[in-house]
Amino acid sequence: MTKTLLITNDYPPRPGGIQSYLETYLAHLDPEDVAVLASTFRGRDSIEYDDSRPYLVERVPTEMLLPTPDLAKRARRLASDFGASTVWFGAAAPLAAMAPVLREGPVTRIVASTHGHEVGWSMLPGSRQVLRMIGESTDAVTYVSEYTRRRVAAAFGPHARLVHQPGGVDTDRFRPDPVRRRSIRERYGVADREVIVCLSRLVPRKGQDALIRSLPEIARRVPGAVLVVVGGGPYRRTLEGLARRHGVSDRVIFTGRIRADEIVDHHRMADVFAMPCRTRGGGLDVEGLGIVYLEASACGVPVVAGRSGGAPETVLDGTTGLLVDGTSTGEIVDAVAGLLSDRPRASSMGVRGRTWVLDSWRWEDLARDMRRVLSGD
């Protein structure tokens, strides 16, 4: 593979989905062929993280990189010193606005990745002009879902080369494990209950509130049902109040933030994984893809997802899980309670879900595609 310089604000140890996306792709590339130019997040944390990487990382002493002449000069110098022929912008907007001035020295190819937030940019006139310029000055613009492609394609313009490059799943890590499943269910005191898990940041778009509103009727149909809300965020207090008002506080467990190495076990504890996401803000706040559904499927768990953004692309409706209107408690109740009360159907969906992830969403296969995108093969 040709040598590549990744330029990004979205880089560990800063948390987030884009950060995980980039980190995992980098882990599947030859460390001799990649270098990173990134912003700084919590200085000492960044130093410790960078020291553990097998590839070169250079930090700019600021929490936010902007497409300025100084940054472009620094990027050109690093690309030249490293011998990079490809520059990869981890998030297209706004840093890929520097693309035209980076085609100097060894750089002959520029790739920019999109993740969903560009949908919001595409709805604002001034920002659309930036996206159009990026589309015209890069060799490839990657997108994570067909939904995001449809929403941003016009903004990037007719000359943009759009390439599907979603995130994937580590199927060796995310896999069923009956012993670990039993252990974590005992830890939360739900060993003999019908467990619904929602694992995500606690924000309105994810639909934790809709699950809580649906829980009284789910519990009427499935008396042992309990909801485990995994994740942290300022929305937690609102959700706790909602559970009290609906009389289901004794059926909702808030775990708070968990460590990254605990995510798999929290998926395994579920009988059903449900995140009935919905679109908000007139389309500005939307699920770009929804890797969390695929991680649940890889663990052999049936999923319930909202028909919002790219989320439906992660579920084979009726095969690996069910799609619902995230604003409809009736649909959520029918889907979740239906799966909890029909174990053979739920088990079959879980098995087929893992098979689908193994066939279509393995990082190893997606990384092979990314290497071709970066090299221009």
Key words describing this protein structure:
about 375 residues; alpha/beta; Rossmann fold
Task: Please give a structural write-up.
There is one protein chain. This protein is α/β, with parallel strands linked by helices and 377 residues long. It folds into two domains: 4-168 and 362-375, Rossmann fold (3-Layer(aba) Sandwich); 178-360, Rossmann fold, CATH 3.40.50. 42% of the residues lie in helices and 16% in strands. It has 15 helices and 13 strands. A seven-stranded parallel sheet has the order 3-2-1-4-5-6-7, sandwiched between helices. A six-stranded parallel sheet has the order 10-9-8-11-12-13, sandwiched between helices. Strand 1 (4-8), helix 1 and strand 2 (34-39) form a beta-alpha-beta unit. Helix 12 packs across helix 14 (343-360). The model has no long low-confidence stretch (mean pLDDT 95).
Q: Could you give a short description of this structure?
A:
With 377 residues, this protein is an alpha/beta fold. It contains 15 helices and 13 strands. It has 2 domains: 4-168 and 362-375, Glycogen Phosphorylase B (Rossmann fold, 3-Layer(aba) Sandwich), CATH 3.40.50.2000; 178-360, Rossmann fold (3-Layer(aba) Sandwich).
